[in-house]
Amino acid sequence: xxxxxxxxxxxxxxxxxxxxxxxxxxxxxxxxxxxxxxxxxxxxxxxxxxxxxxxxxxxxxxxxxxxxxxxxxxxxxxxxxxxxxxxxxxxxxxxxxxxxxxxxxxxxxxxxxxxxxxxxxxxxxxxxxxxxxxxxxxxxxxxxxxxxxxxxxxxxxxxxxxxxxxxxxxxxxxxxxxxxxxxxxxxxxxxxxxxxxxxxxxxxxxxxxxxxxxxxxxxxxxxxxxxxxxxxxxxxxxxxxxxxxxxxxxxxxxxxxxxxxxxxxxxxxxxxxxxxxxxxxxxxxxxxxxxxxxxxxxxxxxxxxxxxxxxxxxxxxxxxxxxxxxxxxxxxxxxxxxxxxxxxxxxxxxxxxxxxxxxxxxxxxxxxxxxxxxxxxxxxxxxxxxxxxxxxxxxxxxxxxxxxxxxxxxxxx
Length: 413
Hints:
By secondary structure, the protein is an alpha/beta fold. It is 50% helix and 11% strand. It has 18 helices and 9 strands. The chain has helices at 2-14, 18-26, 40-58, 69-86, 106-117, 123-130, 136-147, 151-159, 172-185, 187-195, 221-230, 281-289, 294-305, 318-337, 360-371, 386-395, 401-405, 409-412, and strands spanning 89-93, 197-200, 203-206, 210-215, 235-238, 250-253, 307-311, 350-355, 375-380. Strand 8, helix 15 and strand 9 (375-380) form a beta-alpha-beta unit.
C-alpha cells in the first residue's frame, strides 16, 4: 500500500507544471529514493522529458525560420498563450492605443507643433520638414528650439486639442462620459484595459497575468478610463523614480513622461511629469545614455523576466529596438555557450500585435526584421479584430471576458 501510494505520487508529480520541475532540479540531491525504484533520478528524468515535450510542441527543432507563414501563425499564438498563462506578460503601449480617442500619433503631433511654430508657413512646408530625412526626435528638437519655454504647454495643447474633455475641470459626470466615449469609439484602449482587470464576486481586481505596463505615451487616458470603469485603482502609475509601487495594483511605467488634460492637475508633480518628458533628440540621447537610471534598468529587467506584448506601436523606434537587441543578444549568446541552439524559436520571447499592410512581401520582410530582435509578429487584418483576439487569450484562464470588456452601467445610461 505504501509503495503503491508513493509510486502514485511520483507519477502524478511528472505531470505537474514547470515550477515543480524547477524545484526538483534545484533540490534533486535531497530527494530520497522511494520504494519500488521510484527515486530522484527517475523524477528528474521524467520532468526533463516533460519539458522537452513542451519545447518540441512550442518550438519545433526543425527551426522557426524554415516554417511557413501559416505554421508561424499557429506557433506564435501557441507560445503567446503559454507565456500568458505560465509567466504573465508585460503590455507595452504605443500611440495607436489612444488614436481613436482623437489623440495624434507622434508624426501628427509634430505636424501640429510645426504649424504652431511657423503659423505663416504653408502646409507643404510642414510636410517637407517631416519628410526632410531628420529623425522625428531631431525634428522635435528643432521645434523645441523654435517654441522656447512654451514648448511643454504647446505639446499639451496640441496633444489634447481634439479631446473633448481637455482643459475642463473633470467632474463625476465627465469621467462617466469618458468611459462611454472610449467604449463606443476606442475598442483598442477598451480591450487593453480589460486585459488588466478581473471580476471576483461583485468587485474588480488587477489581473495577475499582466505583470506590468510600459506606456510610451504622454496621455493619461488608460489610467482615467480604468479608474472610472472598474470603480477602483487597479493601476499604480510610476512616472518618476521616487514613485512607489503596490502589489495589488499593476505598475504602469511612463518612461517618456506624463501630461494631464485636467487643468486642476496641471503642474501637480504627483499627477503628471512634464519635467521628465522625453521627446527631443537630446532627451532621447540622455535617457538611454544613463544606464543606471530607473527606467533604463527597469526596462531591461522587465525584458529579461517577462514576455512583452507590443500594442499600438510599429516598433520602429531605434532606442526601443536597441534594448530589444541587447536582450535578444544576451539570450542568444547564453544559448550558444550551453549548446542549446536546435530550437531558435525559443529566443523569440516577445510579441508585436500588428495589422497587415496589404503587401505580403513587405509584411514578411517586417516580420523577419522583428525576429532579429527577438520579437514574433501576431498579424491582424485590422484593429477591429483586437478585442476578439485578446478576449480569446483572456478566456484561456477561464475568466469572463464580457465582465471586464462589456459596456459598463455608467456607459450604458
